[in-house]
Amino acid sequence: MHPAISYDPGKAQAADLRQQAQRDALARAVRHRAGRTRTLLSVDGALCQALFASGLQPSDAPGADSVAEAIRATVRRFGTGGCASQVAQEYGDHPEAAAERMRWVRSLLGLTPS
Questions:
Q1: CB count in 10 Å sphere of residue 70
Q2: 25-43 in b/e burial notation, b at 16+ Cβ within 10 A?
Q3: Over the chain, what HEC string results?
Q4: What is the Rg, in whole angstroms, of the alpha carbon atoms belonging to the chain?
Q5: Phi-psi sector, 7: left (phi>0), alpha (psi -120 to 50), beta
Q6: pLDDT by residue (tens digit) across 39-78?
Q7: From residue 7, how far is each of 12, 13, 74 by CA, in Å?
Q8: pTM for the model
Q9: Where are the domains of the chain?
Q10: Are 52 and 104 contacting, i.e. CB atoms less than 8 angstroms apart?
């Protein structure tokens, strides 16, 4: 005979909340330790992803104003998470073309290593 298994939804929910609180605390600690450099890198990354996901093309020879507008419009359209998803999908579907586009995006934003 198998022992009876009891399940208390209240205890399970409390355990879930404790685990979520621990994960949140760990995430805050990591963000705090990373400091300002991580924030700047995140902003640069978000700009790259938004421009990457935009319809702007190298053949457009875009200026600063059109780059800024493309970034704004793309973030409004997809959100930052959606831009990241667009980048990931393109790298999955066409990795060589995506790498070339990201190099162009980074050079356009002045983020290429010197």
A1: 19
A2: eeeeeeeeeeeeeeeeeee
A3: CCCCCCCCHHHHHHHHHHHHHHHHHHHHHHHHHHHHHHHHHHHHHHHHHHHHHCCCCHHHCCCHHHHHHHHHHHHHHHHHHHHHHHHHHHHHHCHHHHHHHHHHHHHHCCCCCC
A4: 21
A5: beta
A6: 555 788 899 999 999 999 999 999 999 999 999 999 999 9
A7: 8, 11, 47
A8: 0.62
A9: 39-108
A10: no
What's the token pair of residue 81? 């998470």
For tokens 């831009």, name the residue.
83
Which pair of structure tokens corresponds to residue 21?
A: 């609180």
**Block residue for tokens 């393109």:** 90
- Report the amino acid identity of residue 76: R
